[in-house]
Amino acid sequence: MTTFFGIPIQALLGQLLVGLINGSFYAMLSLGLAVIFGLLRIINFAHGALYMLGAFIGYLLLVQLGIGYWPALIIVPAIVGLFGMVVERVALSRLYRLDPLYGLLFTFGLALVIEGVFRYFYGVSGNPYAVPALLAGGTNLGFMFLPNYRGWVVVASLIVCIGTWLLIEKTRLGSYLRAATENPELVQAFGVNVPLLLTLTYGLGAALAGLAGILAAPVYQVSPLMGSDLIIVVFAVVVVGGMGSILGAIVTGYMLGLAEGLTKVFYPEASNLVVFVIMAIVLLLRPAGLFGRDA
Amino acid sequence: MSEATLHQERAAASLRLERALLALGIVALIAAPFVIYPIFVMKMLCFALFACAFNLLLGYTGLLSFGHAAFFGGAAYFCAYAVKAWGWPPEAGILLGTAGAACMGLVMGFLAIRRQGIYFSMITLALAQMFYFFCVQAPFTEGEDGIQGVPRGTLFGVLDLGDTMNMYFFVLAVFLIGAFAIWRIVNSPFGMILRSIRENENRAISLGYSVGRYKLAAFVMSAALAGLAGATKAIVFQFATLTDVTWQMSGEVILMNLLGGIGTMVGPAVGAGLVVGLENTLATSGFPVTIATGLIFMICVLIFRRGIVGEIYARWLGR
After folding, report:
1. Which of A232, B45, B77, B292 is 20 to 30 A away from residue A42, measured at CA?
2. Higher confidence at residue B10 or residue A69?
């Protein structure tokens, strides 16, 4: 058997794939955080809870209404996005004039409530979500066995990340958004409805989290706790990448996922810690983050 | 009346109010164990000290740490391990826990103060989560079980802490010493510099203060006092578990401050009492604590940002 530093190459590639999958979710979530932070100056602690909400809505659509995976890919982000817009209108819009820390604290409370409600009704155990029939099974790539669904997750997350990046960098709406990030008062003076833009942005970020959730449902168990553990790692990703650039958030997400996968091969005990260790090192060497503009 | 004298009047009134509350509070605390279940009051006192230590950082330096559970729970582990495995007396265990928390504060603070504002919060949260994962895996914490059956021991070789009243008055003494230390820090020249950093960091820099060092010093002091609270709690309850190092615990101490009044001397202690009391009530009612905590968070942030004590100050002093 081929080995690489004494590790069977299959095991190495297998863990790298797991890392890539995790990285896909880190990338999608840190992307949403960066989009929201860019315009609203709020760190959305509820991002993990919205991700969990997405997975749970997908699960409930399937179990209660018999609506399958493919329609859920559209319905779930729509519902989570609408929910996000309501939250922004009702509550977050009142906090923009205050210290950004209040936004963090409010969304922290929101995350606790969402998580608490699902824990109350569904307990802490995970619920399996079957892989859609179209993507069941796997493909033998010659050097390794690739479960089709996992391949799809990587492709889908790349599409989502690149799509969002194009939306922000290349479209008219995106240009409003970038302009409003730089100077909201001026953009408002030009006749752009900035409050609406803020609502849409939070909705978009929430929808991205929901989409990540439904994509994650067949990979991980659907559980009320799936979001809160993830969000803290994503915060570390965001600190490493710096929230100044959308592309930076995406690239850092994938990189740290891969780093985690590699650590699992060589030193499994540290795989939980590696993202945080990298964060500490980056803080020592480059406090502004790898892609950060603001110190 | 000029602006300055008006301000002085208010400051004096605020001081009088604080002194009156303080005297009332101490009398109530001495009487409390004869009226209320002492273990419950001890729990309140430990959390009150924890909340006040946190307020030193949030209320007086303007730094929102989302990782204080690491100091509280970490110190509990150090103390419990030293007392149980090495047979240290309780006072030595508590000192070790406090010193351990201070060292952790030095490392975490050194990393976290490299970024400001919202990033500071995220870094402290991430580092505390790292410590949590460490505690899950490290053998000395005994994993999910935690360190159980920690002997209370004999304080200074004379006072048997197995006796509930002895234990209570020891905890009360620790709380008062800790609270006094915080009061001294806040009202010292050092504390004034911390406040100036909170109000306008750039101006403090331009006045020649090495802001980073002051922030780090405040962080370490806050961590050490949080550790003192955690280590004392480990002796009271005779165990140290993972619960105290989770991010939920970091959130809880923020809630205590928010509810009681950030940046007031007694607010965090009041908030701690309310949160602990509320959790005790909810534990028997079946209503999930997480939902209640989250709702209070949201309500406080939206309409009640001054907190209870802050609101009382504002009303009574006509601000």
Report:
1. B292
2. A69
